[in-house]
Each structure stands twice: as structure tokens, then as C-alpha cells.
Amino acid sequence: MLVNMKEMLLNADRDGYAVMAVNSVNMEMARAVIEAANEEHSPIIVQMGRSQMAKLAHAEDILPMIIAMAKRADVPVCLNLDHGPDFKTEVDAIHRGFTNVMIDASSLPYEENVRRTRIVADLAHASGITVEAELGHVGQAADGDGRSADMYTNVAQAVDFVQKTGVDALAVAIGTAHGKYPAGFVPKLDFQRLAELKAALKMPLVLHGGSGSGDENIRKAVAGGINKINVCTDAFHAAELAMKAKWEHEPETDYLNIMVTAESAIKLFVRDYIRMIGSNNRYIFDFASNGSKE
Predict the structure, then answer these.
(1) How many domains does the chain have?
(2) Exposed (0-12), middle (13-18) or buried (19+): which is 242, by Cβ within 10 Å?
(3) Is 82 a catalytic residue?
(4) pLDDT band at 211 (very low <50, low <70, confident <90, very high)
């Protein structure tokens, strides 16, 4: 079923688990993500950013396909615009059928972040679409971002931001970064700050830069109140490793088998991640009673 993020994340917030949000850039990725969620009885978020849509996941081609797959699923599936940078991109996403949009004005001065986020929230909510924003700044792992407390989310400011914008979920900066970390590096997260943010906001919180953060950090973040975790690099890496292994053992393999291998690897990765963050078995259906949720 295709849904927005509101009930999905409120349930996660109430019951103490997180929902995986996977950047999916082609049919195989999206199908692997949704099928894994379906089999694990887990809510799921399929998302993509503007640059990903420009390079490969062309919206006019892939979105109708993902929407159709989501509607067929037995579990809640949200289609999210990841890191929308401006009003034009947000409006286009709403018109194309995204059920949640993220407006990322976190690199701008605070008052401008508030202003832009409020406009997008008002527009999206009028269409039944939920909104995520970011406060503090989750930068790029390759640039060494995420290691400075100067970029972390300020608790008092976060309360003011949510009150002024009316967003449904807030991405907080507590020490993670987007992309691939240097070899052997595991980020040190500010769990005390996370606890203070959760206590003050009492709403669904989002962790960006989930890839490479380490299972222990992820589990602790979920226990501390994170309800949505963005994953991209690790999903790509799972497919890359599987394809390289396939070529190594079967040098004459063809394109079809390579794509099947990649899809299977992503599905397995998503399944295991769902279990780690506790969203599995949250949507069990009793078909003997006309499909009502247990």
C-alpha cells in the first residue's frame, strides 16, 4: 500500500523501532527493497534524490513503476524525495506522486531554513503529503564532515524550528555523514544529544548517513529514538560485492544474471537491516478475517 510517512513513523516512534529508507535508482533496487519489506512484514521507504534522478532514476520512467509496486505491497510503502534543494524540485515531486518530501535547507542561515521549510510544509500538507526537514548539517563522509559539534543539531533551536515549520519528521545531526567513510573509520555519535532532542521534541527523528556507521551505533540510535534511517552507500556496496563475486566465479556470465545477482544481494541486505532496526513483523495480516491487521 502506498502511504505517506505520518502513521508509519508515529507507529515507529510509539513502539521504539526505526523504518529503513533506501535510495533506489532502478527497477531492480526498488523491487528488492519492497519485496524484502513485504516478506519481513515491515514498513519501508523508497527514496531518491535529485542528482540520482538526473543521472539514472529518471522520474518519468521509474516513478510510475515504483508507485505500482508500492500499491501491490501488503505493507506500507512511502515514496520519498530525498534532499530536495529548492521549491521547484519540491513542487515537481508532489505533482509526480511522491508521498513524502524532504526539504533540505540546512546549509542556509537558520531563519531561511525555517522560511523555506514552512512554505514546503504548508504546500505538501494541503495535498496529504508529509514533510521531513533537516536541522544541523549532515555533510559528506569523504570530506571529513560529521566530526564537528559545530554542525550538530541544537536542541533549543530544534524545538523552535519544529514549532515554526510544522514538519512531520526531523533529520538531526549527531555525528554521521553521507557517503563512504575512510577505511576503518567508524563515526562517534553524540547519543546524549540524541536523548535530549528526543525528550524535547517527542516526535519521529531521522538519521541520515546510516551507511558505514556500524551496527552497534545503529542499534543504539534506534534505542535512543531514531525512527527513520537513510541508507544508500551500503545498499550499493552490497550489490557491487555480489556482482564482482559473480564475475570472478563465472567470467562468462551475462547481463541478465548480473542484474539478478545484484537484486538478490540488495534484497538480502535490506532484509537483514530491517531485522536489525526492529521493523520486521510490524504488519502481520490475518487473511482469515478479511485482511485486517493484527
Answers:
(1) 1
(2) buried
(3) yes
(4) confident
**Cα 55 to chain center, whole Å?**
19
pLDDT in tens, 214-264: 899 999 999 999 999 999 999 999 999 999 999 999 999 999 999 999 999
Question: What CA–CA distance (Å, rounded) separates 256 from 268?
Answer: 19
Q: Of 13, 15, 74, 82, which one is the catalytic site residue? A: 82
For 53, phi and psi rounded to 5 degrees?
A: -70, -35
> Where on the phi/psi map is residue 228: left (φ > 0), alpha (ψ -120 to 50), or beta?
beta
* Helix (H/G/I), strand (E/B), else coil: 291: coil
Q: Calculate Rg over the CA atoms of the chain.
A: 18
CATH number at residue 51: 3.20.20.70
Q: Which domain holds residue 137?
A: 6-293
Nearest C-alpha neighbor of 177 from the set 151, 203, 215, 150: 151
Q: Is the pLDDT of residue 108 over 80?
A: yes
* pLDDT above 70 (res 292): no
Measuring CA to CA, which residue among 263, 258, 213 is closest to residue 235? 263
Residue 59, domain member (yes or no): yes
Tell me the torsion sign for CA atoms 116, 122, 128, 133: positive
The span from the CA of 58 to the CA of 212, in Å, is 27
1 within domain boundaries: no
Tell whether 276 is covered by a domain. yes
Give dist(CA 144, CA 133) in Å, integer: 22
Q: Is residue 123 part of a domain?
A: yes
pLDDT, tens digit, 9 for 90 and up, residues 48-82: 999 999 999 999 999 999 999 999 999 999 999 99
